[in-house]
C-alpha cells in the first residue's frame, strides 16, 4: 500500500544548539521508501545517523547561531504487512528469545512494568493465548483511559497514566508496553505517520513480540492499523522521540500528515472470531 507522508517543523533558536530529528520513514524489508525529500531553511550543517539495529534514522542538525529554522520532509512509501491468526502465534519462552528482543522485557524510563505486575496479573494473567492477552490489555486501556489532549507532558510515565486515567497516544502506548512487559511479553514503542488520524499529527502505538513476530496494537483506535508508516521503534519514547533539543531552542510549530495513494485501501478491522493480528516486521 502506497502512502504519501509529510511533516513540517519550525524552531526558534536563540543561540548555538544541536537538534536530533527522527521524522524519516524507516527503510525495512516491509517498508520501501520510493521517494523522499528533506529540506532545511536556512541551510545548515546536518548529518545522517542510523542506530546499530536500524530501528531509527536520525538527522543531527548543528545550528551555529540565533535563527528561525524551517524543516520539511516529504516521502512516498510502499508498506507491506502480514496477517497472522492467533493460533499461529505460539508463546516464545524467555529462554528461547533472541538477544535483540530481551531488552524489551525490562522496565524502562516511561514503562515501569515492575510497578504494574500485580495489576497486570490480576486483570490479564489468566488469559492463556498471548495475542488474546495483549488484545485484552489494549481494549482495557481504550475503555478505562480517557484520550485527552494536553493532559500530560514529556515527563508522564505509564504509572502516571494508570493513576490519572487520561493521556494521549504516547501515554496509551507506554501503558500498553508496561502491562505487556509485566506479563512477560516483550513490547516496544512504535512511532510513525498515520492515515486518517484527526487532527493530523505524528502517532504512537506499540508492538508486542508474539510467536516470533512483532505484532502492532493501538489502544487509541484513532487510526487503522494498516494505515501506519513506521518512523522508528524503541524501549519507549525516549528512544524514538520526533525531536531532541540540546541548547537554547524551542519548537514553535509541528505538523505531520499521511495520505493513501492507492484507491483500494480498506481499513483493517479486527476479526474477533479469528483474532487476526498485523505484523510490519
Quick tags:
281 residues; 16% helix; 2 domains; 4-stranded antiparallel beta sheet; C8orf32 fold; alpha+beta; single chain; Immunoglobulin-like
What is the correct CATH architecture of the largest domain? Roll
Total strand segments:
14
| Main beta sheet strand tally, sense and closure | 6 strands, antiparallel
Shape: globular
Radius of gyration: 19 Å
What amount of the residues lies in strands? Answer: 35-45%
Q: What is the string of helix and strand elements? A: EEEEEEHHEHEHEEEEEE
Average pLDDT works out at 92
Helix content: 10-25%
CATH class (first level) name of the largest domain: Alpha Beta
Low-confidence stretches: none
How many domains is the backbone divided into? 2
**What name does CATH use for the topology of the largest domain?**
C8orf32 fold
Total DSSP helices: 4
Q: What structural category do the secondary elements indicate?
A: alpha+beta
Alpha-carbon distance between the termini?
A: 15 Å
Amino acid at each position: 500500500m502506497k502512502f504519501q507522508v509529510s511533516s513540517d517543523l519550525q524552531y526558534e533558536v536563540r543561540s548555538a544548539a544541536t537538534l536530533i530529528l527522527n521524522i524519516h520513514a524507516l527503510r525495512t524489508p516491509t517498508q520501501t521508501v520510493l521517494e523522499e525529500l528533506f529540506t532545511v531553511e536556512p541551510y545548515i550543517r546536518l548529518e545522517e545517523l542510523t542506530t546499530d539495529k536500524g530501528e531509527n534514522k536520525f538527522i543531527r542538525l548543528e545550528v551555529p547561531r540565533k535563527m528561525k529554522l524551517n524543516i520539511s520532509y516529504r516521502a512516498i512509501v510502499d508498506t507491506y504487512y502480514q496477517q497472522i491468526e492467533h493460533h499461529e502465534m505460539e508463546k516464545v519462552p524467555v529462554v528461547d528469545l533472541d538477544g535483540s528482543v530481551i531488552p524489551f522485557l525490562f522496565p524502562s524510563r516511561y514503562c515501569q512494568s515492575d510497578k504494574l505486575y500485580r495489576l497486570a496479573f490480576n486483570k490479564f494473567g489468566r488469559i492463556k493465548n498471548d495475542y488474546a492477552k495483549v488484545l485484552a490489555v489494549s481494549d482495557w486501556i481504550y475503555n478505562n483511559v480517557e484520550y485527552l489532549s494536553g493532559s500530560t507532558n514529556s515527563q508522564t510515565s505509564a504509572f502516571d497514566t494508570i493513576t490519572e486515567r487520561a493521556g494521549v497516544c504516547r501515554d496509551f502506548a507506554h501503558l500498553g508496553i508496561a502491562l505487556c512487559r509485566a506479563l512477560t511479553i516483550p513490547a516496544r514503542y512504535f512511532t510513525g505517520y498515520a492515515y486518517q488520524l484527526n487532527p493530523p499529527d505524528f502517532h504512537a502505538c506499540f508492538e508486542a513480540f508474539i510467536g516470533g513476530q512483532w505484532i502492532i496494537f493501538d489502544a487509541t483506535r484513532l487510526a487503522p492499523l494498516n494505515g501506519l508508516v513506521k518512523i522508528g521503534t524503541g524501549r519507549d519514547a525516549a528512544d524514538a522521540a520526533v525531536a531532541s533539543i540540546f541548547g537554547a531552542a524551542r519548537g514553535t510549530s509541528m505538523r505531520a500528515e499521511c495520505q493513501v495513494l492507492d484507491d483500494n485501501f480498506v481499513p483493517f478491522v479486527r476479526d474477533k472470531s479469528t483474532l487476526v493480528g498485523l505484523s510490519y516486521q
